[in-house]
Amino acid sequence: MARQDRALRTRRAIFEGAATVFDERGYESTTISEILERAEVTRGAFYFHFPSKEDLARHVLAAAVTTDGVPENRLKLQQLVDTLLLLAHRMPHEPMLRAALRMSVDLESQRLFGTRWPDWTSLLADLLREACERGEIYQHVDEDETARLLVCSWTGVRVVCEGLPEEYDLAQEVAKLLHLILPAIAVPLVLAKLEVSAERAAELYAGLSLAGTEPAGARRDDEEPSERPHPNG
């Protein structure tokens, strides 16, 4: 069990170290040597867990599609709101999420890996369909189209705010965006019940931190030797 714990810690260190460098330098400019230095692991340990830098990047992108910390809610529209707010609050705190976004908007990375925008769109569309079945949104709302526009708008807020000279609270900006969009899709009775604020995002994040959730791409139960030769040296 001790070796499994060590393996999990090593994998997570590699995962988080790579995400930090991807976020700072971009995928193309990042070398495996930089990842090893940041993660403080050996080359053998790296190749035990990930066959290549490309494979590691795909894990980072996959792990960014997450609803960790979002509680089940009888109002599916609230669950959708919580997903977008919590992601906004997590973004400044978690290099993995920032790295995934940077790779997703970089044209060269898109060519290599594609993006996870379709996954996010599908996730939000499913919540909107549930909301429709429960009478929470107007019948004329197109769930797939609305989900796509939400993903586009959320991403645009993040990218634009990052490039502005002033500092912005991303969760607060996303809350403003939702206040503009929700009246167009939510029936009045449900709209009045929704909690949409940066404060709610912070509360959700506090719960996530207490739970100690780690990125999905960092989880693996394999054992790992301290050194393992690799054919590429």
TrEMBL record:
Residue spans binding DNA: 31-50
InterPro entries recorded: ArpA-like (IPR047923), CprB_TetR_C (IPR054126), DNA-bd_HTH_TetR-type_CS (IPR023772), Homeodomain-like_sf (IPR009057), HTH-type_TetR-like_transc_reg (IPR050109), HTH_TetR (IPR001647), Tet_transcr_reg_TetR-rel_C_sf (IPR036271)
PROSITE patterns given in the database record: HTH_TETR_1, HTH_TETR_2
Coiled coil segments of this chain: none
Location of the HTH tetR-type domain: 8-68
Residue ranges with Basic and acidic residues bias: 217-233
Highest taxon listed in the record's lineage: Bacteria
Region (Disordered) residue spans: 214-233
Keyword set, alphabetical order: DNA-binding, Transcription, Transcription regulation
Stretches that traverse the bilayer: none
Entry keyword Secreted: no
Protein name: ScbR family autoregulator-binding transcription factor
Organism for this UniProt entry: Streptomyces amakusaensis
Upper classification of the organism: Bacteria, Bacillati, Actinomycetota, Actinomycetes, Kitasatosporales
